[in-house]
Amino acid sequence: MRVSLKDVAAHAGVSIKTVSNVVNNYQHVTPAMRERVQRSIDVLGYRPNLAARHLRKGRTGIIALALPELGNPYFAELAAAGIDAAAAHDYIVLLDHTGGHREQEILVSQGFRARVIDGLILSPIELETEDLLDRAENVPLVLLGERDYDLPYDHIAIDNVAAARDAVRHLNGLGRREVAFIGARRGRSEPAQLRVRGWREELTAAGLPADDGLVAATDGWGHADGAAAMNRILESGRRPDAVFAYNDPMAIGAMRVLHERGLRVPEDIAVVGFDDVVEGRFGAVTLTSVSPDKEAIGRLAVESVLARLGGNEMPEPRRVRADHRLVERESTLGRAAANGGGRG
Asked: Which of 46, 154, 160, 259 could form a disulfide with 3, with the two C-beta atoms 3.0–4.6 Å apart?
């Protein structure tokens, strides 16, 4: 049988209210009383009924997290960070997969799951500003990613231009002068545009040409897309001495092509990825990558939803920049240097 607050109170010889105060971590409980109640909780194996707790507040205890590509390692790791952050607040996460399709993103944002969720965290790809202008649903919405929306919603993102500049600056600092960019998405994609912009700005700042002939556009951002883009650049007769890829899967696909063509990484061509997913740390050549603070992004998104639910004084929507860093590994430093002094 389920152990109740009443059972714990009887075992500890205190009131049900005192047990409730301890369980809810209220401050005005003496250390001795807290220890006494906690001992009874441990002995009886009491577990709070979180569903009942949320229902008493008129909530479900569920936050929806809608992502474009659950098969993409970055989004899988981001989902894990969000789930961990929500669990710390006794919330569970309902995952939605939009596929990056505008129709599905509209459906999610307009609240088709509103009856079962307390808040929504959405990472859109194709959603337009006008799609959210007439949003009638009052479930708190937090946006992730680099699409820029002039809307009254909290938005968590990293500085893609600065991150791309860090990557290119690292390559320039290693003496690489002809840096290709792969993953400039065909059609509108603000993250890709921002990363190309950072690539261009840093090369220009270094007095180097930002050669559009070394920018490879793709329809997708997977391993095969990176491999195809790398092949196109090489088949054009160009031989860059470095490649900056939109993300890690594309960088890994590019490195596979370089290996098949007998080109060494990084001796012949250095490679930098983006997102710092686990896969990039365990290849034959470990991958230098821009590492967004995924844990912070998940935590900030959950905290933004809960702050809106709690009615905290947050009259203006917040644009929050999460940190990033460049993790240097073998794909730019070489094995000896990476093992001797590289980071990551």
From this structure: 46
Can you say whether residue 276 is alpha, beta or left, with left for phi > 0 and alpha for psi between -120 and 50 degrees?
Answer: left
Rg (CA), the chain: 25
User: CATH for 160-292+326-341?
Assistant: 3.40.50.2300
Cβ atoms of residues 314 and 307 within 8 Å: yes
Q: What is the mean pLDDT of the chain?
A: 89
Percentage of the chain exceeding pLDDT 70: 91
Using pLDDT thresholds of 50, 70 and 90, give the confidence band for residue 186: low
CATH: 3.30.300.30, 2.40.50.320, 3.40.50.300, 3.40.50.2300. Which one for 60-157+294-312? 3.40.50.2300
289-305 mean pLDDT: 95
CA 91 to chain centre: 19
- What residues does CATH 3.40.50.2300 cover in the chain? 60-157+294-312, 160-292+326-341
Q: CA–CA separation, 20 vs 6, rounded Å?
A: 10
Q: Quote the distance between the C-alpha of residue 153 and its chain's center.
A: 18
Tokens standing for residue 208: 């180097």
| Amino acid sitting at position 175 | G
Question: Tens of pLDDT along 127-147?
Answer: 888 888 877 667 889 999 877
* Ranges in the chain annotated CATH 1.10.260.40: 5-48
CATH 1.10.260.40 fits 5-48, yes or no: yes
The helices-and-strands tally (H runs, E runs) of the chain is 14, 12
Count of residues making up the chain:
344
- For the beta sheet containing 141-144, the strands, ordered from the edge strand earlier in sequence to the opposite edge, are 92-97, 62-67, 119-122, 141-144, 154-157, 319-321
